[in-house]
Amino acid sequence: MFLCISLQVARNDSNTYLGSGLVANDTITWAKGEVLGKGAYGTVSIQIKLQLMDLLKTLRHSNIVGFLGTSLYQHVVSIFMEYIPGGSIASILHRLKLFVTDFKISCKKFGPLPERVLALYTHQILEGVAFLHQNRVIHRDLKGNNVMLMPTGVIKLIDFGCARRLSCLNPTAPNSGELLKSIHGTPYWMAPEVINESGYGRKSDIWSVGCTVFEMATGKPPLAHMDKMAALFYIGARRGLMPSLPDGFSENAKDFVKICLTSDQSVRPSADQLLKHSFIPKGHTSIKYWEAQKKKCCGTKVSGRRRKKRDKNKEEDEEGRRGGKLATELRAGRDTLQYRRRARRRKGGRKRWSTCSTSATLGDFAHFGAGSRR
């Protein structure tokens, strides 16, 4: 299954479109489905979208949404992307789950992630960001809505509408080469240098990673209690400290978020450096590992009250099976009695089985169903 993004384009005199490499007779078999959502940058110039397609073609990573190809039909360019059914991290945090207690149905939000799951997801986000930065790509809009979760527990970064490839060749120095000054992103996740238009590079994504981790840990991004504009002024002015994680989290988790939200981008660590942080699980990046850890984190712990209820359900199931076995024996005894009664009537002989009388009791049925004669 895949996701299709369609764009209206203007046709020139030939069958090629603005250097895109697409031609009118491209053959990709597909069918239009329901609209899954609309992005903030859904309507932009075709030149920008063609740059985006060229960018996505080069990004192949297990933690980056897959680009499958493009098609051109009746002046519409269709971009085919990998479909991710699990939903975004932001939607999971606010997703409602039902509880049935004492014949009452209640619901509440799924809420913040436990720290072990938080560390696993953060590891995968950093793997994707590190891959982008190694390829001189800045995402510029990292947040919970743009971090998707596969049913297997694998994280995928999506929405490269704001992404930009740097022209500088030095992958480590944040202040050398090309620095961007245009404002892109979402207010609560934007770095100070982006807001101030002082020039930014890869380290702006690291600030957004810190805000996303804070969002996964608490259910909201930093400064969510403020108005968007107030939050922008607060972050841009750099006069106050950014909030830290609540006391329920470890010192490693708190330190990770703190160094990500360092105001000075020259001091802020890179994605490769953060992968070595003590908060991040070491040495495991395979899909099988994520699946095993997901089950370990989310599928084994049962509270005392739930355990009692589970044991009670097991007892009821066992009683039901025993009752079903007895019912089967009773049906077998009844059917056999009816058969022998009909056979006796046809032969006109004397009854040979005491259980063939019409006064047979329930106990007689059970006894006969066990295979014994009177």
Automatic annotation (TrEMBL):
It comes from the Eukaryota. Residues 1-280 form the Protein kinase domain. Residues 301-311, 339-353 have a biased composition (Basic residues). Pfam families: Pkinase (PF00069). It comes from Poecilia latipinna (sailfin molly). This is Mitogen-activated protein kinase kinase kinase 19. GO terms for molecular function: ATP binding; protein serine/threonine kinase activity. InterPro entries: Kinase-like_dom_sf (IPR011009), Prot_kinase_dom (IPR000719), Ser/Thr_kinase_AS (IPR008271). Keywords: ATP-binding, Kinase, Nucleotide-binding, Serine/threonine-protein kinase, Transferase. The keyword Transferase applies. PROSITE patterns: PROTEIN_KINASE_DOM, PROTEIN_KINASE_ST. Residues 312-322 have a biased composition (Basic and acidic residues). Residues 301-355 are annotated as: Disordered.
